[in-house]
Automatic annotation (TrEMBL):
PROSITE patterns: DAGK. GO terms for molecular function: ATP binding; ATP-dependent diacylglycerol kinase activity. Its cofactor is Mg(2+). This is Diacylglycerol kinase. It holds the Pfam family YegS_C. It comes from Microcella putealis. One of its GO terms (biological process) is phospholipid biosynthetic process.
Length: 302
């Protein structure tokens, strides 16, 4: 007989620019139909939803489920800091890269909900998370901290008021490509300092970001280490040639792509804002530390 669970469901109704609006109610309806006690949370913005989630977690539910994209996963990771409550994820965003890494279906909401319901009845998987220390505090993340070309594109897209949707990101990418230039970074990898000129630095707990771009194809969610990916200076033509290879993860075979592994990574550079799990964090410098086996997730064991 299925055990009755108390579940908090935090929903982003604007995931995928509103196209995933029906997924949250479907999660709540399914879980209630299975006999679980469900608290459903929807707020006007991220800070209010985070606060509401943290309050709901003081009642010690059996699970927190987030419905949305990687930003909602980040909300769950932050809300669960220091907790043993497991995190369930039903993807309805544009990227959904944490789900890709966990083996949760990203293109079939019904399949993802079925998997969630099944995982509520088995022990959770335990994975790493990360903590980013920056000038204004700390931010937790589960996927990838980025500080380079992709972060510059995100920063420009967020400042643009037109066009809306994914086309805004595409336009921002074209503008930044026209301005493509290497950045001088000061990195500290487990205490070893190095200065590098690169187009991109990604501190990866997961293998992909940006909706399936396998920037760190060998990254593991539970090995206690970040994969730190550097893309050395390239011309625009060279960049355009290597860029499609990121979706297959074959770019790491190029000698201009360097991968280090470390559990504590500091990144400093002028004029660059760090992003993590698709959300703005803070201007560099930042320091990311692996929180090994600190996050329980409702996902199948590989």
């Amino acid at each position: 007989m299925r055990a009755r669970k108390r579940v908090v469901v935090a929903i982003n109704p604007n995931a995928a620019f509103g196209r995933g609006r029906e997924v949250g109610p479907a999660v709540v309806t399914t879980l209630r139909g299975l006999g679980h006690e469900v608290v459903s949370l929807t707020e006007l913005d991220f800070p209010q939803l985070l606060d509401a989630t943290r309050r709901a977690l003081t009642e010690k539910p059996d699970a927190l489920v987030v419905v949305g994209g990687d930003g909602m996963v980040a909300l769950g990771v932050m809300a669960l800091e220091g907790s043993r409550i497991p995190l369930g994820i039903v993807p309805s965003g544009t990227g959904n890269d944490v789900c890709r890494g966990l083996g949760i279906p990203v293109d079939d909401a019904e399949a993802a909900i079925r998997m969630l319901a099944e995982q509520l009845d088995v022990p959770p998987r335990v994975i790493d998370a990360g903590t980013i220390a920056h000038a204004t505090g700390e931010t937790r993340f589960a996927c990838i901290l980025s500080a380079g070309f992709d972060a510059l594109v995100n920063e420009r897209a967020n400042r643009m008021r037109f066009p809306r949707g994914r086309s805004r990101y595409t336009l921002a990418l074209l503008v930044e490509l026209a301005k493509l230039r290497p950045i001088e970074y000061t990195l500290e990898l487990d205490g070893e300092t190095r200065v590098e000129r690169a187009l991109l630095v990604a501190v990866a707990n997961n293998l992909s970001f940006g909706g399936g771009m396998k920037v760190a194809p060998d990254a593991k969610l539970d090995d206690g280490l970040f994969d730190v990916v550097l893309v050395k200076p390239l011309s625009r033509l060279q960049f355009l040639r290597i860029y499609p290879r990121v979706f297959a993860g074959t770019h790491v075979g190029d000698p201009r792509v360097i991968v280090h592994r470390a559990s504590r990574v500091s990144v400093a550079a002028a004029g660059v804002v760090a992003y993590a799990d698709g959300e703005r964090v803070a201007p560099l410098p930042v320091t990311a530390t692996v929180d090994a086996r600190s996050l329980r997730v409702l996902a199948p064991t590989p």
